[in-house]
Amino acid sequence: MKKLYLVTGATGHLGTCLTAELLRRKEHVRVLVRPGRRSLVPQGAEAVEGDVAREDTLAPFFDRAGYDCVTLLHCAAMITIASKEDRRVWDVNVNGTENMMRLARQTGVERVIYVSSVHAIPEKPLGETICEVDDFSPHLVHGQYARSKAAAAQRALAHAREGLNVSIVHPSGIIGPGDHGRRNHMVRTIRAMASGRIPVSMEGGYDFVDVRDVVDGILSCEEYGQAGECYILSGHYVKVKELLSTVCRIKGRRENKIELPHGLVRRIAPIAERLSLLAGDRSPLLTPYSVYTLHTNGRFSHEKASRTLGYRPRGIIESIRDSL
Fold first, then answer.
1. 231, 239, 243, 284: which could join 205 in a potential S-S bond, CB 3.0 to 4.6 Å?
2. CATH homologous superfamily for 3-180+207-234+298-313?
3. Percentage of the chain with pLDDT > 70?
């Protein structure tokens, strides 16, 4: 039986690592890329140009001639922590996901894994553990990225109810090696800490997971996950001060013990974002939404994924070290 993997978002951090692992396993891989980005695709993968938000460009990507079985791994997403609303976030994350699910059904794709985010899951009060849900709403989450991922997850579940063999995975904050495009917000933050551009910490923290563990979780979900089911792929909750301390220790840098209070950082963040944009940085690290996220409940349970998929995230220190 000749099998084909279709991968979207293959030039991003997760998509690059996922594609590389499939190629390492000697699988046939076709990736969807925006025009002009073929050079970023791992060698050995078939690259097809198209746009997830434009259905009229997607027919070549879904061409299954010569293959007996097709699996779609939908990783493409527009991730943003910016304050300014951007209609492309909804176009890519929601309309793009709807296009993927609908065309997968029309072309008879046998298996689909949709990569969502823990941001799509409604937050629980501090102290409570967040687990999987079976219903999503953009009205129950905060921020344009979270709203788009919640709406997209609900679309995917709707297609599952119509017979599509689709499962959803929810990674937390992805770090780890392989971010060759230097677009991952958290990996950029770790690098900034290592270079001294972020010399002090702030109150708060979040759950971080290694990209390699997410790749393993996705491929395990393909094999063991159930249609219409969701699986959290989280890692370890780390406070910002612990993250900075670990980075300094790995790099042999002297650690600064200063920790800025939340109230001060919250007032600084809008100014910092505007100054970064004026300086030409289109992806600022410090924004009101990034500060908000660090003070939300970041306690996610991956117990279901561990029980069902055999998911086992590696230690956080290894992930931080390899991110550098």
1. 239
2. NAD(P)-binding Rossmann-like Domain (3.40.50.720)
3. 100
